[in-house]
Amino acid sequence: MVFANGSRMGMSVRKWKSSESIHLLSDQRLWILTLGGSLLRRQRLGRKLEELVMEEGLSALIPEELARIGFREHEALRLCGFMELHRRLCRHSASLSAVNSPEEAYALFAPFLDLSEKEEFFLAVLDNHNRVRRVEPLAIGSESLCTVDVLHVLRCALRYQGRAIMLAHNHPSGEVNPSRFDIDVTHEIQTLCLRMRITLLDHIIVGRQGVFPEYYSFAQEGLIVPG
Hints:
This protein is about 45% helix and about 20% strand. The protein has eight helices and five strands, in the order H-H-H-H-H-H-E-E-H-E-H-E-E. Helix 2 (about 25-35) crosses helix 3 (about 40-55). The longest helix is centred in the middle third of the chain and has 21 residues, at about 75-95.
């Protein structure tokens, strides 16, 4: 198969290594590099993967859906494993980042929350220069609800010597507007933070409309005023 720019999809791994950076490869060519089997099969699965993601978003990349479009069990598990490894690597590399805006806060949390089919709640612990010390998962809920122990939030902040924190959770429905519960628990956490002289900088809700990611920032919308 030949792309519009004249490059061939059927490039071998050996040829790719000597010809161009992996960052320049198209999505389909990256899929094909990670899949096994004949070139025709990899091309077919690559196209089906792209169609699946375009129609249902990245959250559709689960073993059951991958099996439905032709993946073998071990291939589906390997791809899902790669994605989970990426999430965990992002957690370790987060300590290199400073977060100074809602856009940067979303970029910090998106790798953890963008693919989840259940509501998950995360905490970022920061120093007094807004550098991230730790990103910590706090709770996993159902498709529509995730409860969090507000005292555990404070314990994590103190454990990692945080001077400020950020919260984030996802809405698998795609809708990013906060529920009454989201607002109430955020205000409860902020009240406790003020008593401990810890600043709650923001609470990000991550969602997705089709393939397009969206987020809601409590600070940006005026629901949090950092003290």
